[in-house]
Amino acid sequence: MKKVKHLQCIRCGKTYPADPGTYTCTECGAKAGILDVVYDYDYIAKNYSKEYFANNKEYSIWRYEPFLPTDPAGPKPKLRVGWSPLYKTDRLAEIIGLETLYMKDDGQNPTASLKDRASAVAVAKAAEEKAPLIACSSTGNAASSLAGNAASLGIKTCIFVPGRAPAGKVAQLRIFGANVISVQGSYSDAFKLSAAAIEKYGWYNRNAAINPYLVEGKKTVTIEVCEQLNWEVPDWVVFSVGDGCTIAGAWKGFVDLYKAGFINKLPKVAGVQAEGCAPITKAFHSNQPLEPAEENTLADSIAVGVPRNGEKALRAVRQSGGTYINVSDEEILAAMRLLGNTSGIFGEPAGVAGLAGLKKLVAEGIIDKKETVVCAVTGNGLKDVNNAIKAAGEPIKVSPDVNELWDVLENIPGLLS
Ligand SMILES: *Cc1c(COP(=O)(O)O)cnc(C)c1O
Ligand SMILES: [Zn+2]
User: What is the Cα Rg of the chain in Å?
Assistant: First the structure.
């Protein structure tokens, strides 16, 4: 493939040909030797232009194939992944104290999270390699997106989830025909078991960080944002962070566009973690190596005590001049109500953690009200109905009796005024 130059270790810089089966740097080992996909940016700049994209009728991540590590003629999952809406949310902006805020609703992907972007590319690569089975461990969304995208091509999956994964996500897996192993332990336990099985049986590995192509899929979210903003770059982008693969991908999208000459500046990137599980925020502000943390938050998708892509996540935010911040579970539930009430967008807890963090960053003056911000909603609220009810409460119950109804309606604050 002319567009891909090679894979490069983010630790030691050693390069490897982008061949099937190459996952991590052999010098640095599987934990530290995470690889980046390096493109031939001159080739991309010479062969593709903004007009090329303006005329492209493929409304999915595959419109960005010039920036993806896949064979244009190769098999692709049949689901429409990407090209999610970017809403200008003026009422929400005003409430949190910004002039210009866009929400990128990635809960509108086919399996209802941003993870579809990574899984679509992983499944395309696995199909290019004719892999019969793909395996991964996941807090939930990586699993359901893998299962859905693989099902669309008839590829088998074996998926390891922690026991706490919400029922909606596990139900998706079963409907998509995945072999699901529910590990009665933490996400880290699920990760370890999956790694052992992958090694023993030689399965295709969709685990975060180990597979360098996941970040490539995820970067389409910010490439898309740039195109949707007519190639204007926002001042800040805000993402929730668990393993760190999403925020690393978000940054890589901008960097790739910049290197190929499509944009002329880079944004600051803010990462948001849950207070009860924030190893990356801690490492960022203390300048110390990552340390394992407890997984103590209701935002299950970002409850990652041992982040697999922490290095890339730290590097992305440092290079951008951005920052990390934590939010409490109460702040996450409040953000879920605020987003839904003002914008009609329904996010799961991890899906709205970015917004909860943004609100604090504006309140603390780290983001100025004149700066343009794009904040991602990374997963749909219907995946985790129990926490949505926790955030918004139960409805008012009435007997089938009009007099009782009048009484109830006249006591709802603001309804009749
Ligand atoms: C996975 C996920 C994240 C975080 O992505 P990482 O790559 O793990 O940092 C955020 N929100 C949702 C809804 C997710 O599923
Ligand atoms: Zn290395």
Answer: 21
Q: Would you place residue 278 in the very low, low, confident or very high pLDDT band (cuts 50, 70, 90)?
A: very high
CB atoms within 10 A of CB 58: 13
Q: Band of the pLDDT at 269, cuts 50, 70, 90? A: very high
Domains of the chain (ranges, CATH numbers): 86-111+214-392 (3.40.50.1100)
348 CB less than 6 Å from ligand 1? yes
Identify the pLDDT of residue 30.
Answer: 73
Supply the residue whose CA is at minimum distance from atom 13 of ligand 1. 379
Token code pair at residue 292: 């394992």
Find out whether the beta carbon of 353 lies less than 6 Å from any atom of ligand 1: no
CA of 84 to the centre of ligand 1 (A): 16
Half-sphere exposure of 14 (CA within 13 A, CB side): 13
Q: Is 301 in the pocket of ligand 1 (CB under 6 A)?
A: yes
Distance between CA atoms of 336 and 415, rounded to whole angstroms? 22
Q: What is the pLDDT of residues 93-140, one digit of tens each?
A: 999 999 999 999 999 999 999 999 999 999 999 999 999 999 998 878
Spatial neighbors of 87 by CB under 8 A, at least 6 apart, are 102, 103, 104, 105, 343, 345
Mean pLDDT of 141-170: 92
Predicted pLDDT at 31: 72
Non-local (6+) Cβ contacts of 47 within 8 A are 66
**Mutation choice for ligand 1 from 243, 300, 306, CB with most ligand atoms inside 8 A:** 243
d(CA 230, CA 123): 30
pLDDT, tens digit, 9 for 90 and up, residues 127-147: 999 999 999 988 789 999 999
Amino acid identity for residue 22 in this structure = T
Report how far Cα 36 is from the mean position of its chain's Cα atoms: 17
Residues lining ion ligand 2 (Cβ < 5 A) are 9, 11-12, 14, 25, 27-28, 33
Q: How confident is the model at residue 23 (pLDDT cuts 50, 70, 90)?
A: confident
Task: Write out the two tokens for 411.
Answer: 């006591």
User: What is the pLDDT at residue 417?
Assistant: 87
User: 373 with 101: CB under 8 angstroms?
Assistant: yes
Query: Ligand 1 in contact with 106 (CB < 6 A)?
Result: no
Contact 113, 214 (CB under 8 A): no
